[in-house]
């Protein structure tokens, strides 16, 4: 929900300050490009509401060409998922798609004892730095997202079974990927290869 009390306080506190602008809006509806930033000039900092942290992150990625970096406090479990690598139990759709667009750095943990009242979960600080040059670029990002989402919807199945609605055996045969593996054993590069094969086959 909007913190109108804080927004009104800040508007009053910084009234007349030419270098401060307060935007009292829903973050999921706010268009960062409306600020007319120079490329990679924005720094986004926040303590994100844990219940909408994932939608906020993916909304901000729409403006990755305008952002230098983003630093957030999030639930520790979410940060672990964001930074997880191949084979990690936390590895999944969230981390793969964020790592496609950004370099992820788990900076440090914040214990529950740092808050009053004390929450039941631990938190962590994470930095996301959008890639200036994409290290791996899919031909169609929407296809990549669909492949990753479909694979991890059935993460205990083998790749052949979890992706059978998207990828035929004929397409798999053209790829240097072991289809008996489970989704958590494939790298981002592997998923891009699968995505590109689907895109090429549909052309």
Question: How would you characterize this protein structure?
Answer:
With 203 residues, this protein is an alpha+beta fold. The chain has two domains: 18-130, 3-Layer(aba) Sandwich (Rossmann fold); 141-202, rRNA adenine dimethylase, C-terminal domain (Helicase, Ruva Protein, domain 3), CATH 1.10.8. The chain is built from eight helices and four strands. It has helices at 4-13, 53-60, 76-83, 93-101, 141-153, 159-162, 169-172, 188-202; strands at residues 42-47, 67-75, 102-110, 123-130. β1, α2 (53-60) and β2 form a beta-alpha-beta unit. The N and C termini lie far apart (44 Å). The model has no long low-confidence stretch (mean pLDDT 94).
Task: Give the strand line-up of the largest sheet.
Answer: 1-2-4-3
Q: What's the shape?
A: globular
How many beta-strand runs? Answer: 4
Q: In the CATH hierarchy, what is the class of the largest domain? A: Alpha Beta
Count of individual helical segments: 8
Distance between the termini: 44 Å
Largest sheet: 4 strands, mixed
Which terms summarize this structure?
203 residues, alpha+beta, Rossmann fold, Helicase, Ruva Protein, domain 3, 2 domains, four-stranded mixed beta sheet, 4 strands, 16% strand
Compact summary:
The protein is an alpha+beta fold and 203 residues long. It has helices at residues 4-13, 53-60, 76-83, 93-101, 141-153, 159-162, 169-172, 188-202; strands at 42-47, 67-75, 102-110, 123-130. Helices cover 35% and strands 16% of the residues.
Give the helix/strand layout.
Elements: H1 4-13, E1 42-47, H2 53-60, E2 67-75, H3 76-83, H4 93-101, E3 102-110, E4 123-130, H5 141-153, H6 159-162, H7 169-172, H8 188-202
Parallel strand pairs: 1-2
Antiparallel strand pairs: 2-4, 3-4
Helix pairs in contact: 5-8
